């Protein structure tokens, strides 16, 4: 009689309590409420918003994080820009529901966004955010030092990552929007309220 072998069994980690998927039309109200909560109602007056106003996000690069009950708990979108004559994407805003901090929602959104951007043939991504947080995804100031934004910004927070080597070589000048214009009826209206925004670090603006 052959002795029964003890076959090692790999432990299976619990499934993530959220999923990343493409944003849907039904997500818009929840997304806007989340962005208001993270960045304040004056977020429409921020510098990076000038690159998004009246423009459509890059195709396939509006992502949502949702809980198992369907509640939206994270969002990120990327936009077509010219980075001093170099074609690139601008990432933001990135926001995560306070109740889901520490679950890796932001990191999951970032990794998926960069993977999709690379798969779609984009060469570089730029954002305005905290260098210590975004360094893990490859973002640095190495090739953004000669770039500017249409408004006030902190130089050390303008970061970039190349998805294709050399995509930001020689990038110099103003970052400008190049995405497809939204139909006028769909263009978001700038809000007039200027209530102080809550702290939203380390999320990209």
Describe the structure.
- With 205 residues, the protein is of the alpha+beta class.
- Strands 1, 2, 3, 4, 5, 6, 7, 8 and 9 form a 9-stranded mixed sheet that branches.
- It has one domain (18-179): Aminopeptidase.
- It has helices at 28-39, 105-119, 131-134, and strands at 18-22, 62-67, 72-83, 86-91, 95-96, 124-128, 147-148, 158-162, 173-177.
- Mean pLDDT is 86; it is low at 1-14 and 190-201.
- It is globular and about 45 Å long.
- It contains 3 helices and 9 strands.
- The relative contact order is 0.22.
What distance separates the N and C termini?
Answer: 68 Å
Count all strands and give the number: 9
Q: Tell me about the largest β-sheet.
A: 9 strands, mixed
Report the portion of residues in β strands.
Answer: 15-25%
| DSSP helix fraction | 10-25%
Rg (C-alpha, Å): 19 Å
Count of the separate structural domains: 1
> How many separate helices?
3
The overall pLDDT average reads 86
Q: Per the principal axes of the C-alpha atoms, what is the gross shape?
A: globular
Give the SSE order as H and E letters: EHEEEEHEHEEE
In CATH, the homologous superfamily goes by the name Gcn5-related N-acetyltransferase (GNAT)
From the 3D structure, determine the CATH topology. Aminopeptidase
The top level CATH class name:
Alpha Beta
Structural class: alpha+beta
Region (Disordered): 179-205
Keywords: Acyltransferase, Transferase
Protein name: N-acetyltransferase
Pfam families: Acetyltransf_1 (PF00583)
